[in-house]
Amino acid sequence: MNEDMMNIAQTAEMPEENGLNNAVPPMTFKAKFSKWWNNTGLGWAFMLPFIILFCLFVALPIVLSLRYCFTYYNMVQPAQFNGLENFRYMIMDDDVFRIALGNTLKLAVVIGPVGYIASFFFAWVINNLKYRTFFVLAFYTPSIVSSVAMAVVWKVVFASDRYGYINSWLLQAGIIDEPLLFTQDPGLIITVVIIVSLWMSLGMQFLVFIAGLQNMPTDLYEVAYIDGMSNVFQELWYITFPMMKPQLLFGAISAITSAFQVGTICTDIAGFPSPDYCAQTLVLHMEDYTFYRYELGYASAVAIVLFAITFTLGRIFMKVLSTKGEY
User: Fold this and answer.
1) Above 80 in pLDDT, residue 20?
2) 3-state DSSP call for residue 292?
3) Is the pLDDT of residue 242 over 90?
4) How far apart are CA 314 and CA 196, in angstroms?
């Protein structure tokens, strides 16, 4: 009986001994690092160059601008805190700032919406063409060409003498008697800037829209026509626009930023400063106080105003075109 009791006790202890023998050994540092690298580390490694560049050239300048916008800083003497003096001078005494703000808003109101709608319209039309590769290349090329090179081409088109293409055609047609001063007349310069900026702004947005249209599932259109859809306008409103909200959002943000960053074209066409500051924008006003007058405190205040405008409009469009909770 005692032997039976001992056998039972040994049998009861065996699972515990087996459990100890089968216990998983603790992970080594190398194993933990390998698991982290495979799960998340590789992704962070790919994002690290972008994060570094973003912090250096986007986040850090914004932080420094927030610091210097409340100071007087001329790059020679240490920055001196002056409170809201830069913003007071900007609003009350700087007439050129008010002209630049008006020109910037005027350009943004025209270039942003018109370029946005035109980009989508041309993408939608070309997507239905047979030889669309050629047209895609033709529309996208201006966005990858230097703005200085494009300005040289357009200055020949809008030359203020009789040798300019438009003036030559108008004179031959008998529409005008004297050449129009496209690059010298303050009333015409802003129109030329709008035309050139619109032409150059089509490329990136157009490429995004054409990519979204080519990835649209065709079976949705087939089902919709079976269910009673009768024309292309219903197709756009009920299928294309809702399915392309991510591309539409990206295009809207690109349109806003490009519209408020117009500056180089104005300088290339009308010079710096332009006649009566007719083509002065916030970007050029900021560059004037940064690189010519070396008043970085006031230039930072102008940069903060420009950042606040673009950021606010960007958040509005992100709210309107957001796809969160729709899928």
Assistant:
1) no
2) helix
3) no
4) 24
